[in-house]
Structures are given as structure tokens and as C-alpha cells.
Amino acid sequence: MKILNFRNSFTRNISAKAFTFACLSGLTALGFTACSDNELDQATNKEDGALVTFKVSMADKEAQDAAKANPAYAATRAGFAEQLRMQGLSPEDLTIQKHEIPGHSDMCLIESTVAGIDNDILENSGTAATRAEITTLSSLGNFSVTAYRGTAANAISTTPWFYNNKTNKSGNLEEAKRWAFTEPYARFFAVYPYDAIPSKLTLSPKSNTSTPYVTIDVKENVSQQIDLMTACSGETPIHYATQGTAPTVPLKFQHAMTAIRFKVGSNLSPDHKITKIVITKAMSQGKFTLPSSVLSTTGADLDNAWSEVTSPKDFTLSDIEAPTKGNVNALIVGRDGKNETFYMIPQELTGKGMYIHVYFDGEATPAIKIPLKGTWKAGTTKTYALSQSANSYKYVFSVEAPKDSAAYDATLSSQFKVISYYQDGKVQKKVKWNVVGYDENLDGTYSMDEKPSWLTSLDGGEGSADATGETRQAVITKNIRDLLSERNAELQKAPAVTNYNLANSTGAALVQNTANSYVISAPGTYRIPLVYGNAVKEGRENSSAYTSTASPEYLPPYTENLVLEHFVDHKDNQITTPYINRQNASDPATKGKLVWTDAPGAISGTPNVVRVSGGFGTDDYLEFTVKKENLINGNAVVAVTNETGVVLWSWHLWFAPKSVLSTINHTSRDKEYKFTSETLGWRYTKWMGATAERKVSVKLEQEGPDGKKETATVLLVQHAGIADQEGNATMYQWGRKDALPGVDGISGYSADNFTKLPDDGENKEPYRTQMLTRTIGRGIQNPGTFLPEVGAGKLGWQYKQYINLWSVNNNDRNGKTRDVVKTIYDPSPVGFQIPDPYAFDNFNTTNASWNKGFTFKLSSNEKIFFPAGGARDMSKNGKLVAVGTGAYFWTANTRLVNNQLGYAWRIKMSTGGVSAPTNDGDARNAYSYGFSVRPVRTN
Hints:
single chain; mainly beta; elongated
């Protein structure tokens, strides 16, 4: 069997105060019989009774609980002595000692002893153990049980009933055993850990006819040492008195070793690090006879338990860096934060030539050699403090730092432990301690004024009368920066506006520049002039946005002009004026409506059309109200309709700060492009800013009498906050102005149920009639609807295969022109347009990083983020695909593929790389796909 490296199974918060114990007499005195009577056949000795199980406990924990529950044991010398007696100790066992250090008259080693073996380490059962740690009931693993039985209490066999049977902490044998009514008396002996047999522990052989025992070989490396524990069912054999009813079999585990710890004492010379500690010439091998009861450690009882103690060796604690400066009373731990406890065989020290060697700063020879004297007693913890204060032995004040940093989103620091008591002769008394200073910049200077704002609360403690200590946590704030909350708060706190004209840079009445998308950055009432897209520019009619001057373009043998010379309205009539109600004077827009929004409640009520008499439709506008309480980062689409509810035009509203239209410069092929700082319609659903790691050293002070002040420090650390962002952006089908939501489940959005026409349906009925209904005007009338591929050889969402819908004068089927002229179908805000393909010419993964999208470093050394919002797939009726894994962005130009129309250039980004126009001939998709848009400043 393998030894169980059980060190990672311990909890930090429970300090087991172990008993010491010794074996009683040999098996012959217990009335054991010869083995032949134990080997009855099953016919006469049926093992068909109740199952053998055990009531497992820790004897030291039971004694402490009993002492704490008895008022007579509290706060008196007699009571304290009685508590120790229950643990097999006496007050004399805990006397503080001072060891002089030869050659260092100004230094000493202060030795303190506490009842029990102190469990310092948090339970960590999921990882491999790397240090000697202490077992508690909650972390107890499997143990070995050997049992003897007989026909009477004084007739117990010397041959085991069962031997070295693996048992779990619930008291269940792995190889189940049942009581036999013909041999109802039994005694049980247990050894922990089970898996240490035989690599580090050796049980007495099965043929042994005296009291069972275990031998141990203590390893020289502290990381390989174990905490030996044993248990027995008691001197009186357990009696299976009632057939079918299992008797209670108590197994009270007790620690058999001495725990040795080291800490940095007071007033040590600074600027050193303790890097190794060696205990020399300590006995490494011993025999421990399993006990039948708890005996005192005084007198010869302990000698009867431990025998054949021999084989002196050196025992080493390495891989440590304990600074002597600013680390007063801190227990020494390793670089990995694990427990650093020696587990030694109890033995006499005086006159044995045993030393403690202390090494500084990685030197090969010890800086200090301290001779040991006295006794190591089973079931106690010795703490040696290297100090230059001769009186420091009167107080015990130590702090064990947290094992790890607090999580960035934690509201409590990681746990640390404070041990604070006063040794009044043989009695330990609690000593209060307080927080007396903070050092946030870690310059060694402490002040209460230096308390960081993120540490909201950390109070002092009452102290602890034993090594259990007080487990403490500071109250802290989350180390996060919620940028989304900040953005929403910025929008809501902005001064409200009244009758703000979105076509004017200051909100004044004059119509300066119009567009299909407007940024809303404050609550209040807004107005949108009833103008087609960007048909008003710099206060004048901008007919170049809806009338092309390009020469016709044809793709032989087809006779269809690919250039839309006169852009059309919702009825597919040629637009002759910028003004919607002048264009439709006989059937004007009279009503407003909210088409869809991903910021519910941001638009208060129903938008309405305001008509100005005498304006002949040139002064009409859509008016709506943005509610402060519901204004958050998001989008909405509003529209105007005629009296019968037919949509004449619509606009995209982007609820975001004005900074989203600040620009990021990039030069490509000698032309400068100024991208918007965010993707059009980008809506954060999560936006966390990166924060720095937080650290503060806290100074604690013990309230000693007569000005006696012991201090200790503890370093509290909280992990850095991680930058993260999630969200979605509006989607656009190529050539359409209409913003579609980048997330599902939005009321007002839908997908057209139109069935794609067969490839040969262009000139066949009823397909041709159906095809002719799929027009630009249909798209205008249905701004919240994804329009599928027409079919009949048409890849677009409308049956005309125009190539200039987003660049009015484009007549290049392969999209090589860089002179984009913005059209009234362009979805970009005022001053921006959809870019030509060359804007992305040198985008690649060099100097780029992926995190739910690509962040590129541009030629200007500025960074730009393209989120992986996915796409709406035309082959799946507009279903969102590749969200989080793909980013797709349209350009204004088309692309002829194998003499096939209906394709446009796009840039695609994914974890696999970048597919950019002009560099990748396949960087194109059909018009009917829904992609994101990243506008650039207009030419």
C-alpha cells in the first residue's frame, strides 16, 4: 500500500489540540487466547450479525469542547490544569523556555509550547499535498483497523479477527465485517494514515501476539513527513450483547508526534531572509505501541508508548524566504504558502548534541547554531522564535498571512489568523490586539491615514487563549470598474434637452445636416426633420445623395442597368425632393411609431409627427421623448407613417455618449480613414475595465501591559480586475439603410417568410409576379424586417442588382473605386459614411489580439476594437450566427464573382484570422446577409 499524502486534506480554521498517549500492557494481560479457537468454521461461528462500524472522533477536540462547556474550567489555574489533564498534559509541559545562542549573546531562541497540534492549513483536498500538515476530523482520510475477538472479555484471541482493514472516516470498513454472536467480544486498534503503510509506517506483523505497534521512519525532508495518529476502542472489550444490534465502537484518534514550528521574533537584524532551517541529530526511527487509553506525558508513561527511538539524522526545511524585516511574529511558510511544520518523534533533547541551524540569504553555512534542550512531548506544538528581546517570551503574538489573494470580485479578503495571548506563569490569557496602521505604498511607513478606500472595515480582536487563534477577514470592495454602469449613469445624468433638433449640431431649429442615424446622449425631447437620409447637407438640398451622375453599367448579355440613377421612396417612385412630406404631398406622413428597441422604455410614449402649416412639408418633423430613468446604452428605430400606417421612412437612434463618434485614424494606401470609435449601434451588455492589483500591509499591535507592545504585519492582496466586454451591434443588409437588432428576442423585429424563388423563376409565373414585389420600397416600408434572398438568380433582398446603393456614383462592378459618395440609403450618422474596401487593406493579425473580437493596432499606433457580433444569415432567414466567434463588416462597394452579381466586399474576422477586401478575393458575401457597419468620416 502507498502512504496517503494527506496534508492537503486539512482545514485552516480548526486547530486540533492533540492528546499524548501510551500503550498499556501486553495482549496477554488483556486475556487473549490461542488462535485455534478463532478459526471456527462458518457452520458454528456465523458472521451474519450486525455490521461492524465505528464512531470516529478526535480525542483532543472532545476534551477541548468538554472543557469549554464546563464553566469550572474557565479563567482559573485549576480549570486550565484540568483541561490539560484531559489532554494528557500538565501545566509544567507548557513552560516557556529561553535558549541562549553561543556566540550571539544579544540573541536568543524563545521556545513556547501549546497543548495540541495546531492546524494552520486550509483544507485543500483537490490538489497534491506538498507539506506536512495536520489532520482534523473533517479532513481525516482512510485509516487502518486491526481487530481481535473472543468468546469472553477475558478470552480475546491473539490472532487478529481481521488485520490492516482499510476504513473511511465515516467508520465503514472497506472489507465489511459482521459480528458473530458466538464470539461477541472484540478490541479494535487503528492507525492513520492507511496509505502510509508500509512506505513510512510499518504495522506489527499479523503474527504478533502482543499489543500491536507501529514503527515510523521520519523523513529528512519536511515535505515528506506525516502526522501519525492512532486510536483504540478502550481497555474494556466491546460486547456484541444483542444479536442483530451492533454495539457502538468508539475510535478516538490522537496525535502521536511533536509538531515543531518556527517564527521570526522581535528586533532581529533587518535585511536578511531566512532561507533554510535544519534540526540536526534528531532521532528518526521509533516504535509506538498502540494505546488502550490516554496517559499523561509526565513520568515514564510516554517512554512506554515510544520505544526503540534511534537513528539520528538531520531534518531540513528549505524552499523558504522569510524576511527578518517587517515580518515580526509571522510564522515561517514556504514560497507556495504551504505549512512548514516538522513532525518529530517525541524525545529527550538535553545532552544529545542536537542543534537548530538557521541559514540566511541562501548561504551554504548556517548563520546561527542553537543547541536544543528539554523534551519534545507527544501531542504538543513547539514554536521556536529567533529573537533579540529577552522578555518576548511573556507574550505570544503571531500572524499567519492569507494563503492567496482575494478574487477581484470578492467583498472579503482572504482569511488570515491572529494568535494573541499572555503567558501568566502556567496559564495562557487572551490579549486584545488592534489595527494601528496601514501601508498602501509599501514603503515601510504605517499610518491610519494610509488606509485605502477599498478596505472598508478591519477591526481588532479579543485574542486567543491557545494556538487556535482568531480567523479574520477584512471587508473590501470589489476591484472592478463597471464601465457600462458608468456609461448609463453618464447618459442619465446629462442635462435634459427640449425640442432638440438632431439635424443641428447644437440642437437649434435650423436644419444643417441630416442622416439615417442619430446619436442620443441625454434625456429630453427630440426632433428629426422629415428628410430622406442625408438629402440635406450644410443647410442645402443635397440631390447628389439620391441622383447618380455615373454612366450606365451593364453586364452582358443582360440589359439591366446596374446603376440606380434616381433613388426611390417607399412606393418605388423617384425621389425628387429631400423632404418626405413634399415628396408625398397627397399622402403625407402624419403619425409616428416605435419600430423596435433594445433599450425598453427609453422612448417614452409614441413618437408623433408635427406638421408646420405653410411649410409645404419642408418644416415637418418627428418628435419623441427620451425618458431619463430608462435611458441606457442601446438602440431604437423610429418611423413615420401615413394615415393608414404605411411606413414612409425610418431612422436609427443610438443611445450612447457623443464620444462614440470620435475618430480613430488609419492610413491605407496613402489615404487617411477616420473610423468611428465604436461599431455603429454597438450596445454593451457587459463592460468591465481593467484595474490594478491592490495591496496593503496592515500593522497589528498587541495590547500588552506597562507599555509592552508586540506588533505584527499582514499583507492583504486582491487580484487585478480583468478587462472584459460583451455586447451586440445593429446589423444591415447591403444597400439598406434599416438597422436590424444584433440580438434576438426584440419586439418589433421579424424575418419575412418569403420563400426563395427557383433559379429559373425570373420569367416564369407565378414567380415573376412574386419577384417584382421584392423592391427597395418594400424594404423602406418594413424597417424592422429581415428580407431574405429573392432567388430567381438574384442574391439580393430586392430583385434589382444595383451596385451603387451605398456609393451613388459607383459604376464599377468590381468595387475598385475609392471615391465613395454617401447616399440616402447609407445608415451612417451625420458626417460619416460606409468605407470603401481599401480602408481595411492592411488589416491582419500582426499586432492584433482576439477577445470576443479583434483589437488592431493601426498605422497611427491607435487601437481599434471590432466586436465579434456575428451575422444574420440569409440562408437561415436572418438567424444570428457566429456570435462571439465572427465579426463581419460591410464596405460600400460591390464585387463581381464568376460573372455573378449580388455580392459586396466585406471584412471578416475570427479566431482563425482576417479575410480582408483587396487582399482576399473571397472577402465578399451576398447582399442579403446582415452584417455590422464601421463608418468612416465622409470624404
